[in-house]
Description:
This protein has about 350 residues and is of the alpha/beta class. Helix content is about 40%, strand content about 20%.
Amino acid sequence: MKSxxxxxxxxxxxxxxxxxxxxxxxxxxxxxxxxxxxxxxxxFAADPSVTATARIGYQAIPNADLLVKDRGLLAACLPNAxxxxxxxSSGADVVQAFGAGSLDIGTMGSSPATKALSAPLNLPVxxxxxxxxxxxxxxxxxxxxxxxxxxxxRGKRIAxxxxxxxxxxxxxxLGKAGLTADVQLxxxxxxxxxxxxxxxxxxxxxxxxxxxSKLAESGGHIITSSADTAAAGAxxxxxxxxxxxxxxxxxRFAVVWAKxxxxxVTQLRTKPExxxxxxxxxxxxxxxxxxxxxxGYTYLGAAEQADAKYLGGGFGADLHQTAEFLLSQGGIxxxxxxxxxxxxxxxxxxxxxxx
Length: 355
């Protein structure tokens, strides 16, 4: 791909894209102490010996993390730990929070995670968990019904959060189509995209739910998706990343955290309708709207994640491949060898949770 991408961001759009972290809350009133304030129950033996303080950053992505938060499972399983949740709008903001030392565990895509592990940032963080393998849940959606392919977007304005997995997939798709220098990319936070869409300031967007569904409800139609770019050799993931210092000092917390996530993944797989109630509450949408979103992701349990293909070491190759792409786009200063990215993986929690 060509490294130069025309990026035009008007002053108004740039302001709209500025994102501040906010305390996690949803319209339903459900928080992080159990569904609708009910007393949460740990699905396995709780561990009162853990007294860690953990600052967790999450995003409005339909995965097991939202179920864990909504049902208050960490509080139930780690009754003497102090856990606080903060919501972020993009992985780039989570990376900034780690850089500022204000987070212990946070959700971000594989693209911003790779950026955090690469020069010039070289943040002391580790990939702790794979929340999901991204498929059709992140897609390129166009406003004009006459546009039925990437070629139809030549000269058009496409919004996406820069540094995100959606941005990575968009650039991969444009590069393969030979359109990298022929579109206008606009850096925009997901929650700012619908306003720009309705105001005629953008023609298309590569983004995830719930924003993607809102654009579809406004008449947009899907051109291609992250499932397609993955099939073409550019897979993307949503990850949990933790600071190395926190993991070194709180290994037991990490294992219990992973056990809770593993339990929540099982709920997504075996009781999707019940899980949709919790996830819908955290997203502020009806449970019936959650099902189609869940179908756009693949969720991995602890045993799968602990395998050599993923957190057992093989995931380093995926991070390395992402780094090479980011370097070609000027997103990072240098790419380390594959072993450097394997070092950025913390597989002990998934291994402990699966034993």
